[in-house]
Amino acid sequence: MKIRLERKQDYMEVEKLVRNSFWNIYRPGAYEHYIVHNLRKDDSFIANLAYVIENDNKIIGHINYSKGYIDYGNQKEDAVVLGPISIDRNCQKRGLGSELIQYTLELAENEKIPFVFVIGDENYYHRFGFESASEYGLFLEHTDTNEECPFFMIKIFDESKLKKSQGIFHNPEVFDVNPDDVDEFDSQFEFKEKQVLEGQLGV
Question: Contacts from 108-115 at CB under 8 Å and sequence distance 24+?
Fold first, then answer.
């Protein structure tokens, strides 16, 4: 088993992995494989942090990083966000996701990226040194700046690069998708039934 950079010939296999990993988890079907597909062609994509886990010539894990921005009101600054990350459903609960995150976070620090945002389960990401971004006056777009947003977190490598003023983080535009476009893209993959399940967003 090895962690390596994603290659062009991996693209379809990675998209199948991402699709299967997210299918019916946050919504009926999935958007994430479409986001990964489009991200590679977008200026926000950080290609040298797109890694996979390969085992017996099969890709069982994948991670992306990209650049959104923080709006401080009078200026905007680029900021890196982690995700999507996917682990084959048959290989979960083995620490592979943790290994992939830790490996790539060390690369990000070595490349002098001052901090990384993530949107996810705070109980999971705290183990990597992520903490609530609201503690630093940073909030996710479309959330209430008067309340803590525990699922929006930051991992800081160089605190001197943080401004001492409130900022709103915006994901790369490629994260905003049209469901009809997703359905069209999804038609090239093996059919999977969309299901409305308890625990999905809005359910």
Answer: 108/49, 108/65, 108/80, 108/157, 109/157, 111/48, 112/158, 113/80, 113/157, 114/156, 114/157, 114/158, 114/160, 114/161, 114/162, 115/79, 115/80, 115/154, 115/155, 115/156, 115/157, 115/158, 115/161, 115/162
pLDDT of 161 reads: 94
Whether residue 26 contacts residue 200, with contact meaning beta carbons closer than 8 Å, is answered with: yes
Cβ atoms < 10 Å from Cβ of 118 = 24
- Looking from the CA of 147 toward its CB, the CA atoms found within 13 Å total 7
Residue 203: pLDDT band by 50, 70, 90 thresholds? low
Q: DSSP string covering 133-156, please?
A: GGGGTEEETTS-TTS--TTEEEEE
For 16-25, the pLDDT digits (tens) are: 999 999 999 9
pTM: predicted TM-score of the whole model, two decimal places? 0.95
- Check pLDDT > 90 for residue 84: yes
Tell me: pLDDT of 1 over 70. yes
Each residue's pLDDT tens digit, 5-59: 999 999 999 999 999 999 999 999 999 999 999 999 999 999 999 999 999 999 9
Tokens 């966000």: give the residue.
Answer: 81
DSSP letter, residue 45? B
How many whole angstroms separate alpha carbon 180 and alpha carbon 173?
Answer: 17
